UniProtKB/TrEMBL annotation:
The keyword Cytoplasm does not apply. InterPro entries: NirD, Rieske-like_NirD, Rieske_2Fe-2S_sf. Signal peptide: none annotated. This is Nitrite reductase (NADH) small subunit. Residues 18-114 form the Rieske-like [2Fe-2S] domain.
Amino acid sequence: MTATASATRIELLSASGWSPVCDWDLLVPGRGIAVLLPDGRQVAVFRDGNDRLYASDNRDPFTGAYVLSRGLLGSTADGRIYVASPLLKQRFDLVTGECLDDEDVRIAVHTVRAA
């Protein structure tokens, strides 16, 4: 999604509806932040260089560490946006959750918007 000039906060969709998670200005293009949801889950929220937003689980399934928010964004030759884990460098597609380096592994992705 591309944000509008009036967008000031980022919201994540959960079972109970849209919840604010951070201010737009906290998201640096190409990087992420970790947010703690009311149910105790950690989610990583990312903003790419084109101001599109993505959200995924923050837990790296290979190590069990909650670090994906510290990973760097990149894109494949065919335009798939991914986050590379800062630990073992596996890449996760931020639209589908698929691990680009091991097809048997996935992370959950979440719906996010600027409001």
